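Running co-folding for MTE.
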Amino acid sequence: MLGKFFQKPEQQENERVPPGQYLAKGFPVLTYGATPQINTEEWEFKVWGLAKPATFTWADFMALPQSEFTADFHCVTRWSKLDVKWTGIKVTDFMSLIEVDPQAVHVMEHCYGGYTTNISMADFLREENFFAFNLFGEPLPAEHGGPMRLVVPHLYAWKSAKWINGLEFLSREELGFWERNGYHQRGEPWAEERYSY
Ligand SMILES: Nc1nc2c(c(=O)[nH]1)N[C@H]1C(S)=C(S)[C@@H](COP(=O)(O)O)O[C@H]1N2
Ligand SMILES: [Mo]
């Protein structure tokens, strides 16, 4: 694991690196399948299921408050990257635009390209979650999920859907792509919730 692509955390970084993780040099790209190429003019974002169906454009998102975020990023394949700098829109600000049925307890994140991942409402609605469109001051590159991705810092990064284009609100938990293929339903890195078996 160590060598060209990984390094042992420095002492002061140690307490920020969850068990079983190594620091990546650079920012690896982890994608299952091809990278969708979506421009902001054609980009659309939908909500459905236990929510009033609605469609949003890039301009609708850009009209929401924007902030800078610094967050640590933990991939279940054992690399972590500390202090990733993003610009984005808080999930809680976006949620003020939509009407969700109080019966909704889970959310399926949908993406261009067909990737899905599930998250509980409680994990989704956390203050620190955001939709990101800039990475280190540049427009988010397509391979990292541009033009827009979700970032959920407190869970393994497979929950941070790249090319996100929809939220399906659910009355019960359903499993997304990796969760159906053996990954943990929740994926909390400090508890090493890697696999469901
Ligand atoms: N749409 C989509 N989102 C995705 C993935 C993917 O394959 N497709 N991979 C996930 C995984 S496993 C990780 S670790 C992170 C990687 O993000 P990065 O490529 O920007 O490092 O994106 C997550 N989001
Ligand atoms: Mo990952």
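Result summary
The chain has a mean pLDDT of 96.
Residues 58-62 form the longest helix (5 residues).
Job closed.
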